[in-house]
Amino acid sequence: MNTPVTRTTREMKKSNVLLVVNALKALNSATKADLAAQTGLSVATCGTVLNNLCLTGEVLSLALDASSGGRPAQRYACNPDFFSVLSLYVEGNNSACRMSALISSATGDVLQQLDTVHPSLSLEHFFSYISDILTRYPNLQAMGIGLPGVIVNGVVASCDISLFNDLPLVPMLQEKFGVFVQVGNDMNYTAYGFYRSNCPQETAPVAYLLQPEGECTGCGMVINGRVLQGASHFAGEVSHIPLTPAADEQIAERLGKIVVTLVAVINPVMVALSGPQIQAQDLVAIRRYCQNHLPAQHLPTLIYRPSIEQDYLQGIAELTLESYNFHLAFER
């Protein structure tokens, strides 16, 4: 009697695919035995998954390993050309906007980086910019968009660039371009990019503060390797903390107050700080303020970042690739 395939069985198979793909990317190339050791799956299960992935072209069979007396093992690697990913962020306001884009392969290798400034951005310009990139990269299957605003379930609830306000941007882009789309907050992406490039094994909270022109400080937080979104995707909107400024308050004191608040709430092990109003030497005054208000054992490490660009783009690229791999596994 044939046992019907339950949803649980199907889900397990898809989960196995995700485990194998992620392990293969982490190892760059691997044998079935390597993947079994990395994932905890059996060699036979890894072999079945790899055979199916080779048929779709997502995984490539490489040369056989040198034999040590027995049968030489087949080595495998993810196919970097299986698809490409667009990571794009828009920054600025209604007066002027800048768009920065990164195109990467299925294995995360950078293919091209682009940058453009628009004195006055329109949706037509925005869509045209994406369309031009898709024309140049026809195998582009996923895009991640970063915006200075609050995004809830694919809808832009609020944004510093008003043309995006209330737009259901995820379904709009999916319908227009027919690719996987993810849209997120600028600071969440930036914090994750910083985390991945500086402390990817850290499980304690890590925070990232951005001080742009003006008083609207932004913050992103990563806890146990995951971005903290909050119940309504409002986590990190630290400009809403009612901090009463002193008459002659300097930017270092303002940021010091925010760091102290973060320590009291999430107790980060590390806080990165960036923005045009911050210089590396300001961290001395920020650290001194924190020392005056916190016990020494709770002080986080403060790190200056001269620009958010690479952290931002890396965060978009890695989170989009992670989400798309999950999407691929569960759409097979």
TrEMBL record:
Pfam families: ROK (PF00480)
Coiled-coil region(s): none
CDD domains, per database record: ASKHA_ATPase_ROK
InterPro entries in the record: ATPase_NBD, ROK, WH-like_DNA-bd_sf, WH_DNA-bd_sf
Protein family: Belongs to the ROK (NagC/XylR) family.
Name under which the protein is recorded: ROK family protein
Organism in which the protein naturally occurs: Rouxiella aceris
